[in-house]
Amino acid sequence: MLNSIVSRWMLYGTLWMVAVGSGYAQDAPLPEDLTTLGPEELLALELIPIDVLGAHIHPKGVWMAGYRFGSMHMKPAHGLHDRAYALEPKAMHTGMHMVEAMYGITDRLTLAAMLSYQRSILRLQTTEGMRYRITASGLGDVQIALHYALRASMVHYLTSFAGLSLPVGRVNLWSDRLPRPLPYAMRPGSGTWDMLIGLASIHRLKDWNLGVHGDALWRIGKNTYGYRLGHRIHAGAWATYRLWSWLAFTMHVDGHLLGDVSGRDARLDPHVSPMDDPALQGDRHVMVQPSINIYLPKGPLRGMRWALHLDLPLKVWHETAAMEMHRQWILALQWAW
Ligand SMILES: [Cu+2]
Q1: Distance 58 CA to ligand 1 centre (A)
Q2: Closest CA to 171 of 270, 267, 96
Q3: What is the CATH number of domain 2-26+34-336?
Q4: What is the spatial distance between Cα 146 and Cα 175, in angstroms, rounded to a whole number?
Q5: Ligand 1 centroid to 82 CA: how many Å?
Q6: Ligand 1 centroid to 55 CA: how many Å?
Q7: Which of 28, 67, 188, 203 is deepest in the core (most CB within 10 A)?
Q8: CB neighbourhood size of 271 (10 A)
Q9: What's residue 69's pLDDT?
Q10: 270 CA to middle of ligand 1, Å?
Q11: Per-residue pLDDT tens for 258-270?
Q12: 172: which residues sit within 8 A by CB, 6+ positions away?
């Protein structure tokens, strides 16, 4: 099922490129246009929730920089209780730093790049009841994308993006406590070249922004260790309410679909730990994501947007994952000039 969904998305990706190609050729200014707004005015509109990655544009010549820190807790999935493993995962925590840069090439076309660094801590228990923890850290893959506004009127904002994820992240990690490499979920990199596409549509109604979005990440080929991570799809909807010009609240519901690992890292034994089983790396869940967004119109931090964001599972399908999402929070900063 995942394959047919993703191939449909790839078709949309092709259509996107055609649309961008024709739009780029004209690139005429739009009537009553969001692109006439300054960089700060645009950030102040809180158009895109900070957790919907990308899917926005900046006017020509405008730079944006962003930083976010995310703290994610995962726990073992309930569906695994009927199996016995020599090594049982108990909990995993991942802290992730992400920096992003965006630049408006034209009023409709924006270039974006993103780099991440993550550190994971995994708690394990042996069948004899001995507990220990292992840690892993490193740079993740670099993402480069083009974002294009198909519409940018004051009431309807339709943006798309397409890009590449470059396999610069670490894939081969070891701990002195394990006789084999660290499991798939602790590796910051994928080791494969991946394609990204996405679309977001936002309607503005007075103090409300209502949006829907979808994006897909499609992995190409296999990495040097003989596997690739699962393809990934996100789709969701949100509502943002601007209470004052500097304060907005967002409620976002987001579905995640992550396929299993294809192929396998032959150095890992799936019978030892569920985290080493390629068939248990997929994940399906729906999250509720409330966030507070603050925009500072004056003072020394003028023009900066802050967001604090929570991720809580609404529904998790247990049988498909070694570990499942428990909770996450993200603090994000963005500024444009
Ligand atoms: Cu931006």
Answers
A1: 6
A2: 267
A3: 2.40.128.130
A4: 38
A5: 46
A6: 8
A7: 188
A8: 11
A9: 96
A10: 41
A11: 999 999 999 999 8
A12: 181, 187, 225
* Ligand 1: centre distance to CA 224 (Å): 34
Q: How much distance in Å is there from the Cα of 88 to the middle of ligand 1?
A: 41
pLDDT digits (tens, 9 = 90+) for 123-168: 999 888 899 899 999 999 999 999 999 888 878 889 999 999 999 9
Separation of alpha carbons 249 and 152, rounded Å: 22
**C-alpha of residue 54 to centroid of ligand 1, in Å:** 7
Question: What is the longest distance spanned by two Cα atoms in the chain?
Answer: 70
What is the spatial distance between Cα 312 and Cα 213, in angstroms, rounded to a whole number? 19
pLDDT above 90: percentage of residues in the chain? 52
Average pLDDT, whole number, for the chain?
85
How many angstroms does the Cα of residue 101 sit away from the middle of ligand 1? Answer: 7
Q: How many CA atoms lie within 13 A of 218 on its CB side?
A: 21
Highest mean pLDDT out of 7-11, 25-29, 240-244, 310-314: 310-314
Residues whose beta carbons lie less than 5 angstroms from ion ligand 1: 64, 102
Helices (H) and strands (E) counted in the chain, each on its own, are 2, 15
Q: Output the CA 56–ligand 1 centroid distance in Å.
A: 6
pLDDT attached to residue 6: 55
On whether the CB atoms of residues 287 and 254 are closer than 8 A, the answer is yes
> What is the spatial distance between Cα 81 and Cα 131, in angstroms, rounded to a whole number?
18
CA of 39 to the centre of ligand 1 (A): 9
CA 190 – ligand 1 centroid, Å: 25
Q: What is the pLDDT of residue 28?
A: 45
Overall average pLDDT of the 303-321 stretch: 84
Quickly state the pLDDT bin for 219 (edges 50, 70, 90): very high
Distance 130 CA to ligand 1 centre (A): 47
Cα of 173 to ligand 1 centre, how many Å? 33
For residue 188, what pLDDT band results from cuts at 50, 70 and 90?
Answer: very high
